Amino acid sequence: MNTAAAEATRGSSELESGSPVSHKGRILAWAAWDWGSAAFNAVMTTFVFTVYLTSKSFGGEDQASAVLGTALAVAGLAIALLAPVTGQRSDTGGRRKLWLGVNTAAVALLTGLCFFVFPRPDFLVLGVTLIALGNVFFEFAGVNYNAMLAQISTPRNIGKVSGFGWGMGYLGGIVALLIVLQLFVQPSFDWFGASTADSLNIRLVAVFSALWFLIFALPVLFAVPELPRAEDSPRLGFFASYGLLVRRIRAIYRTSPHTIYFLLASAIFRDGLAAIFTFGGVIAAGTFGFELKDVIFFAIFGNVVAAVGAILGGFFDDRIGPKAVIIASLAGLLLAGSAILWLGNATYEFLGGTWAGTTTFWTFGLLLCLFVGPAQSSSRAYLARLAPHGESGELFGLYATTGRAVSFLAPALFTLCITVATPLVATGEAQRWGIAGIMAVLLAGLLVLLPVKAPDRTEIAVLPRP
């Protein structure tokens, strides 16, 4: 091993053992990727572009939503088949940063190509295909990004650093959405990007999102050193990597089965959390009649509430433990989501006044955002307490990949519920029943989590090597 590689290896080992203080510059650069990624998460897949794709211009909310759900389900299946070994191979091959850059560039390119999705039904397939492929490469990039957490933090601050990343993501989403609102959706001044002809303003949002993500993804590629190749790691073919993955999972299951149980539970309920953001804007527009500007206003408030929830969740996490926070959050999500499902867009007389459908969505939708934050942050903190010294990178990589291994569940159940409801309810009402599919995934994750042993802060796990 050459001197540079030896120094990099020693530095990585020291960071994982918690001996030095992590570099603030590297943490900021790492979190900048999360800030930039909000342009894809919040703008493209949640509150703006998917809302555009499921509008009447593409054939109507119900039909377009079902097509979008199908495309995302197929993307989730591709992630489940490919993501687990892509992270493993980039780690053992010393190419973590390289593949983070390649996959990020692919997401930016696919996002930019959404500019060519014109508001006509024959462009629906192109639009959902680009979004679905973007999701695949985004998750591949996320595998490498999350695995970097152990490189830029120590065991003493890994939870704080992880939470800071989540916070930057929420804040980046707010800023990106405000810019999109002021420049494209409800422009403050007249310029060519404000034109609504052929939905030019919305298609330009895709170009903005691509550039936003690409620019803020650059710092981590310069600030964080490449992971050196482990000299004792075997050189395996692509399919042989699946064999190694299975052996590692079996070895962990023999000595620390509750680690596997938690990975399974979190994979399920995090898919439900992702679906809330993916389909939240779609439901707001299609079921509750929100205009695009109203969806963006809700998104801004929702990100603020989610950030507050993550901070509060972290406060309780240190006092009652991450499992209790996750269980309480999932229970809150189920109650809020069920309220939206059953109340719908109907108007009710309540305490001498009128309770409108928009009030239902604002009230219980913000409650959903409040509980999503702590569920996400405490889930990562849970695993941080399980991660043994010297093995945290691999375990977080496994966490990231398993988190998307079942990512087809929520989109598939969302689509199935809409399909089943379509002949049974009035036109335009079927989309709302997609919420039932998301709630089913969250409930399944909660039930799997309940018997899982909470992490013991006084023990340091030692996960075996196969």
Concise description?
By secondary structure, this protein is mainly alpha-helical. 73% of the residues lie in helices and 1% in strands.
Characterise the protein shown here.
With 466 residues, the chain is mostly helical. The protein has one domain (23-224, 244-449): Growth Hormone, Chain: A (Up-down Bundle). It is built from 16 helices and two strands. The protein has helices at 3-17, 24-47, 49-53, 61-92, 96-113, 124-147, 158-185, 200-223, 238-255, 257-286, 292-320, 322-343, 357-386, 392-405, 409-421, 434-449, and strands at residues 348-350, 353-355. A two-stranded antiparallel ribbon has the order 1-2. A hairpin with a 2-residue loop joins strand 1 (348-350) and strand 2 (353-355). Helix 2 (24-47) runs antiparallel to helix 8 (200-223) and helix 6 packs antiparallel against helix 14. The radius of gyration is 22 Å and the shape is globular. Mean pLDDT is 81; it is low at 1-21 and 457-466.
Topology:
Layout: H1 3-17, H2 24-47, H3 49-53, H4 61-92, H5 96-113, H6 124-147, H7 158-185, H8 200-223, H9 238-255, H10 257-286, H11 292-320, H12 322-343, E1 348-350, E2 353-355, H13 357-386, H14 392-405, H15 409-421, H16 434-449
Antiparallel strand pairs: 1-2
Helix pairs in contact: 2-7, 2-8, 2-10, 4-6, 4-9, 4-14, 4-15, 5-6, 5-8, 6-14, 7-8, 7-11, 7-13, 9-10, 10-13, 10-14, 10-16, 11-12, 11-13, 12-13, 12-16, 15-16
